[in-house]
Amino acid sequence: DQQVKQNSPSLSVQEGRISILNCDYTNSMFDYFLWYKKYPAEGPTFLISISSIKDKNEDGRFTVFLNKSAKHLSLHIVPSQPGDSAVYFCAASGATSYDKVIFGPGTSLSVIP
Amino acid sequence: DAGVTQSPTHLIKTRGQQVTLRCSPKSGHDTVSWYQQALGQGPQFIFQYYEEEERQRGNFPDRFSGHQFPNYSSELNVNALLLGDSALYLCAAGPRDEQYFGPGTRLTVT
Fold first, then answer.
1. Contacts of A99 in chain B (CB under 8 A)
2. Per-residue pLDDT of chain A (113 residues; tens, 9 = 90+)
3. pLDDT band for position B96 (50/70/90)?
4. Closest chain A C-alpha to B74 CA, distance in angstroms
């Protein structure tokens, strides 16, 4: 039973354009959401997060949108750069900072120069 | 870079054997979580240690156990290895909002 879903295993985008990565979740108890980026042979690195009390959070070229009623979030990368090519994991957690983090299966993003 | 190190990098074991993986959070984070990442999947939460106690546990059998030492380093032990235990094992230091991952240990069970 996958509580965090990323239905697109891969995505290919032209350099300079927008990358949109989508994520759906099923557990309404999730209260905090994170995006991680992973390069080969490295551990995931934190990218951006959003609490359920917000519907948008922005950090430079990265913006995360949360639609609680639809149990859906998305990560926008504008403009996309070749160095953004990596696997992106959506993750969700409960209300407290020590709650376990549940990851989605990931989306492999390729940014074409 | 919080400098989370894991050892060994790669490991090959036979079914039925036992394995111990190690994690050292250089930054001194008191919370350590372990994840299993099978090929083509996202990391799956195994358990979390805080102040030497297991605080949270995911849906993994008792064959998976752990330990945290006073210096916050941690070990993951897996007994009676199965072929399905072949995966990348990731250690993460810090609370949910500030988790730093190590590069992982690649375990292959033959």
1. 56, 96
2. 689 999 999 999 999 999 999 999 999 999 999 999 999 989 999 999 999 999 999 999 999 999 999 999 999 999 999 999 999 999 999 988 889 999 999 999 999 99
3. confident
4. 17
Partner-chain contact B56 A100, CB within 8 Å: yes
Instruction: Classify each residue of A82-103 as buried b or exposed e, where b means 16 or more C-beta atoms within 10 Å of its C-beta.
Output: eebbbbbbbbbbbeeeebbbbb
Tell me how close the Cα of B45 comes to any Cα of chain A, in angstroms: 7
Cis amide leading into B8 (omega within 30):
yes
Mean pLDDT of the region B27-55: 92
Instruction: Give the model's pLDDT for residue A98.
Output: 85
Chain A residues near residue B42 by CB distance under 8 angstroms: 4, 6, 89, 91, 103-106
How far is it, in rounded angstroms, from Cα B63 to Cα B80? 7
A107 touches chain B (CB under 8 A): no
C-alpha B31/C-alpha A46 separation (Å) is 16
> Quick check: A50 and A66 in contact, CB under 8 A?
yes
Alpha carbon distance A43, B7 (integer Å): 13
Residue B39 forms contact with A (CB below 8 Å)? no
Shortest CB distance from B42 goes to which of A49, A99, A105? Answer: A105
The Cα B47–Cα A101 span in angstroms is 10
Question: What pLDDT score does B29 carry?
Answer: 84
